[in-house]
Amino acid sequence: MAAYTRIQKWLKSALIFTVFVNIYWCYGHEIVLDDDIFKASPSKNVVNVGIAKPRRFLLYDVNPGEGFNLRRDVYMRMSNLVKKLREKQEWILVLPPWGRIYHWKSPNLDQYRLPWSLFFNIESLNQHVPVIEFTDYLKEIGKPEIEEVYTLQRYAEGWTNGKFEEKYDERECIDRPAYNAKEGGRFKGWFWGYDDVYALNFKCLSVQGFASILAPMLWESTTARSVFITRAETLLHDRFGGKNYWLARRSMRFAQHLIDIGNDFRKKHLKSTDEKDKTVMKENWQDQKPEKGTAKGGPYLAVHLRRQDFARNKRKEAPSIENAAQQINKIMKDRKLKTVFLATDAHKSEIDDLKNQVEGKVVQFKPSKTIHHQYKDGGVAIIDQWIAAHARYFIGTCVSTFSFRIQDERQILGFDPNTTYNCFCGDKDLDPKCEQPTKWDIMY
């Protein structure tokens, strides 16, 4: 019974100690614990507890005219900026909701306020830097408010003496301001279609340099808990192709529901599975470090043929349908392949023309109405990329970010760069062979 009483007293003392620590932690007071609690020493026990600093949030957006895959690239720049910021303070990256993009042209789909989880694995992103959806940010803040907005812009005078140097300055807005103060001093503008969201302050910032150039400003020149950077594509990668570049890129795994749809299509229509193709992914992207050339790929040629605006404005990079078919036929003959997987924005008449000239079977992914409505145009594009990334050989369209992202994916899977970094020659460059994309090695 005596032992039981001693245990009761010890538990009571422990409970009192825990309550004291939790109460005083919130207020940053010095905690003085009575000797009787410990029965250990006649001296006083002092614990200094500081106030926990609140999390800070970095929000960003890009030029409305930029496409899906360029936006993915800007995410990498901003995530690595947050990685830099976290060296001194607890910053969280807020993911900008997806909205209608130039290539998302399906008129019957609602393509606004789309979360990143529709397209990407959020848990995977969080293994690089902490990220949250915009709706979760609003819940945490408790009101539809962003403290400061900075619109990035060029320097009106250009480079001084033609010399590039990293710098930034608060300046008058060169273009018409996108955010304007309304009644009550709150700034209104485009916040991804959330009409109730407002900002407390707005400024234009002339900047030239790499993403990390903003770190000192965000550490030292503002105490705002939430900062929104618009036109973030103005900032450059700190080191394109470097370790942090690839850490961010490797963390951008697609949402599993899109991968599953792509894998099912590969199995049914292209005789392709990860086991046969040697493209099995590790559960954690940080463990995915295959030797170059170990991936075999499915028994098909993958083609990304960009048309529409490229056919009009980039004729050097975009071949005619006839010449595209000629290049496809040559690769199929050289690689002994009989099936082509085609990802393209070409009109139906051009696709039919291409199919008639290709000496083999041409396959496309065409989503059901259910899949299309559920995962939108962006989800369909990702499924196309996933299927193309698993081919025995890939040829894309030069300077297209859609092709760039497929090439990245193939590098991550372990394909030979010679089967990956290939693009169509324009009509004027067929002989001799046109310049091909630069081969980038992953830095682990």
Please give a structural write-up.
This protein is α/β, with parallel strands linked by helices and 444 residues long. Helix content is 35%, strand content 17%. It has 14 helices and 15 strands. The protein has a 7-stranded mixed β-sheet with strand order 5-4-3-11-6-10-7, sandwiched between helices. The longest helix has 24 residues, at 2-25.
Helix-strand topology string: HEHEEHEHEHEEEEEHEHHHEHHEHEHEH
Mean pLDDT: 87
CA-based shape: globular
| Sequence of strands across the biggest β-sheet | 5-4-3-11-6-10-7
- Overall structural class, as computed from helix and strand content, comes to alpha/beta
Distance between the termini: 62 Å
- Strand percentage, roughly? 15-25%
Which stretches are low in confidence, meaning pLDDT under 50 for 5 or more residues running? 1-51
Number of strands: 15
Q: How many whole angstroms does the radius of gyration measure?
A: 27 Å
The helix count comes to 14
Largest sheet: 7 strands, mixed
What level of helicity do the residues show? 25-40%
| Oligomeric state, counting identical vs distinct chains | single chain
